[in-house]
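CORE FACILITY INTAKE
Project code: CF-77B
Contact: R.S. (postdoc)
Sample description: multi-component assembly, two entities in total
Requested service: structural model of the whole complex
Turnaround: standard
Below are the sequence entries exactly as provided by the requester. Do not edit them.
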Amino acid sequence: MADLSANFLGIKSPNPYWLASAPPTDKQYNVLRAFEAGWGGVVWKTLGSQIKNVSSRYSSVDYNGNRMMGFNNIELISDRPLDINLREIAECVRLFPDRAMVVSLMADNSREKWHELIAQVEDTGAHGLELNFGCPHGMTERGMGAAVGQDPEIARMVVEWVMEKATIPVITKLTPNVHSVVPSGRAVVEGGTNGLSLINTIQSITGIDLDTLVPNPNVAGKSVFGGYCGPAVKPIALKMLTTLSQDPVTSRVPVSGIGGISTWKDAAEFMLLGATTVQVCTAVMKHGFRIIEDLCEGLSNWMDEKGFRTLDEFIGKSVHKLTHWEDLDINYHIVAQIDQTKCIHCGLCYIACEDTSHQSIDLLYGNPYNTYSIREEDCVGCNLCKLVCPVDTCITMVEQRRGDEYVNWMEFQRRGLPLNDH
Amino acid sequence: MAIVNNRLTAEQYEQNFSDIHPPFESREAALIEANRCLFCYDAPCMKSCPTSIDVPKFIRQITTDNPKGSAHTILSANILGGGCSKVCPVEKLCEGSCVYNLMNEPPISIAKLQRFSTEKAITEKWPLFRRKPSKNKKVAVVGAGPAGLSCAHALSREGVEVTIYEKESKGGGLMTYGIAAYKVTPQFCEEEVDFITSLGGITIKYHQELGKTVSLADLQHQYDAVYLGIGVGLARQLDIPGETLHGVEDAIRFIYNIRTNGYPATPVGDKVAVIGLGMTAIDAATQAKRLGAREVTIVYRRTQAEIPCTEAELAIAKLDGCRLLWLAAPQEIRGENGHVTQLVCRQMQLGEADASGRRIPVETGETFVLEVDMVIKAAGQMPFEGLISGNQLENRYGKITIDATGSTNLRGVFAGGDCVNGGKEVVDAVQAGKDGAKAILEFLKYFSGFGLHG
């Protein structure tokens, strides 16, 4: 049986699954329930100057009947008194000493405020700190959250203040609301942060109520940009994570991956692209803490099948498989193949190819079932037909190399090889 | 043993004749099903619908919260799309060809979704269609059944003034008078007719019977064109002794009585034999049972492999507790004091295949006797041959002959539906009505300059 235990800068947890800093981690009651359910750790909801939240706070994007494919919030940092938060954190650490307790922080914008807050939090026995440089709403207007994370120099400065005081590991959480996370990532690594986490939420409007014409979520007839998360943002998070894993500066520190993680597969993907631990929020807000069981069992079973005994054996293993476009092999060529015994004649491959791709599927009329077949000479191997096909393995992509040797785009041009003539 | 009415309590009738295919109970339930639809291209379900309803489109319109669009998609192809969602044998049409069947998954519940999308539109009379300006042309339609209504609606949309002549007191034809009440209620049929006429330009004259109160010659004289959608109606006789005994009834009349007079007023026997195994036989047998008959036996001279009704229909009869006697051909109905007491059947066996490939039942020489007090004949319906021949309409065994344009041999007289095809599904009649309207518009020289679907 695979060993799921994680070690993030010495912060140990029985599994790599932490609850992200968010409503599920804003008080002892929830956190104890999470630990009882089996979560490896939590990042306690951001502490700072006490604020007041509004109602309503969330909205979501449903897709083809699936609820909360994307999720959006306009909630701020903890709205509970600091002393109560600190007391509860200490109690959770005492009751579950084997779980990771990281506390998210967003102090007012001064060295003294940061130092004061760090000292108070360290007294709880927490194992690490996460700096919230990512919150995209509410706090930014006050010069905090993403307002810090979006400016590498300010971010570096705040990290330097923190590092003067902190005696436990410091993780800096990055905002995705930038064209690239690398400049801010580098700045905070150079400023001394021990680790990184990403992504925070993406600024968004999830939709508009077409009766009232008010965007969601509705607060007395008005709305604000919210922070988007959930399964919809996972691909964006994976890309941002990879840029950190590939950068020579940011790759020096471990990363805790965040962004739409709902299943063990999502987690495996984040870890293959360099995450040491992963943080989950939307999935538990939809399903409750009980999903931790399958998150662990699924990952463990996959690791057993792949022969990975520990997390370290696969963390980062896919990073080098992401290359530059110019390095891709132009001689590699695949064509679609339809298994007629599996085809259900829905025509989705045909219409996708005919209307939007390369018109390489033939339709042989039948009543009621048409027969569809690939014209291999016209197929560019784009995958679209296979992606729209509702039957797994009905359409497969078969390799038909254009040449034995590896030829990339630079070499292709150098040799003056022919481009398409149609 | 006796044939009596009022066998059950009001609650029992209510329960026995409640909707056999209940609608989705909520929008959410419909959405779950609608979201299963793959939105096939050149969809097999659409190709299997005689009226070519764009099924993937109307289902997608449910998922996108476009109920008006969804209703319009259905009803623009089939103005009786509401009724059809309740009575179509979908297992051999749209749902039977759903691609999910090829994955060994249950097909999309197309009929149920179609009902979801049409019911409100019909009962609330959504103004989904608008008539084109009047073309000052008048067409008479004979028969307010599915073919006639469909033809009338298509013509009126194009600005033609339509008068429908209907012999009964209500429209809907077989939908209203000839189908089991647990599939579609007379009440719904009435609403559907009202919805169709709410377009305007359609007047229905009731109690007007062709050959009695109204003549074809007069209609030809008074109107620019005539459409005959008179259906079939005469029950096929068994031509066996005892057919005139009290207690022998034809299925059409039996169902007509249920729908016209109501459940408590319709008498039924203790032990009922139903002869035949078409859709009408099933409707008669199941409803006899639901009216309180103790025993219902369906007598069919062939085997289950040859049944004309669908397997789904047969399942309803079985679930209702109807007994099935295969390879039994009625030979004689016996009675006492003028009342039915016995049905004598010949025991058959299957012989050689006939031209259609079905094996022909042949006699074994043995007979057996069923103790019954009621015999319902559902051995098929015959066209109004006398009426049709009497009007010099070319026909084949009473089925009106039409050419490729939908025209009969009489200039300006068109026909469609059961009176032409001998008796098919409601949905076939609806398509025939559309085809007839198209032919009439061409005949009226209307077709240039505006299209039927324009």
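Facility notes:
- DSSP finds 13 helices and 18 strands in chain A.
- The first helix of chain A runs from residue 28 to 37.
Invoice: internal transfer
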